[in-house]
Amino acid sequence: MLYDITNKDSLEDLHDWVKTISSVPNYPKTKLLIEAKIDLENQREVSHDDAKALFDKYKFQGDIHGVSSKTGENVENVFETLGREIIKNSLKKCTSCDKFYPLELKYCQYCGQKTR
Q1: Which residues contact 84 (CB under 8 A, 6 or more apart)?
Q2: Residue 3 — left, alpha, or beta (φ > 0 → left; ψ -120 to 50 → alpha)?
Q3: Across the strands, what pairs with 100?
Q4: How far is CA 7 from the centre of its chain?
Q5: Which H or E element spans position 21?
Q6: Which of 7, 45, 68, 102 has the fewest CB atoms lying closer than 10 Å?
Q7: 2-90: CATH topology
Q8: Which SS3 state, helix, strand or coil, does residue 10 take?
Q9: Which regions of 1-116 does DSSP assign to beta strands (E)?
Q10: Along the chain (116 residues), what's the average pLDDT of each consecutive run of 10 residues?
């Protein structure tokens, strides 16, 4: 989820987005909080404390990630972090064949080893 550091309403809107997404069956387990427009720090309207309060309330993973689409700062890092978190939250590595399988399976889909 992303908010604009120069627009306090964008952070407040995330409360509604989290509730909407959480109401969907099988909603995503991986949630990152991303602050956009970090290149405009001098125009910041959203305090770090307010962002941290939302982060803690909805149990986002990792840290709050700041990005700038204008400069490209941290954009690639956020996608890498998201990928790692998705794997961590939805896949497990088989101890027999070292391949990743979905957590909900009772047997590894590659080697047939019991997973639980």
Answers
A1: none
A2: beta
A3: 93
A4: 21
A5: helix 8-22
A6: 102
A7: Rossmann fold (3.40.50)
A8: helix
A9: 2-4, 33-36, 64-66, 91-93, 100-102
A10: 97 94 83 96 97 95 94 95 86 90 88 85
How is residue 76 written in tokens?
A: 């690639």
Number of helices (H) and strands (E), helices first, in the chain? 3, 5
Tokens of 50: 């307010």
E-assigned strand segments in 10-71: 33-36, 64-66
Q: How far apart, in whole angstroms, are the C-alpha atoms of residue 108 and residue 58?
A: 32
CA distance 36 to 86: 21
- Residue type at position 102: P
Q: Which residues pair with 3 in a beta bridge?
A: 35
Domain ranges across the chain: 2-90
pTM value surpassing 0.90? no
Cβ-based neighbours of 72, under 8 Å, separated by 6 or more: none
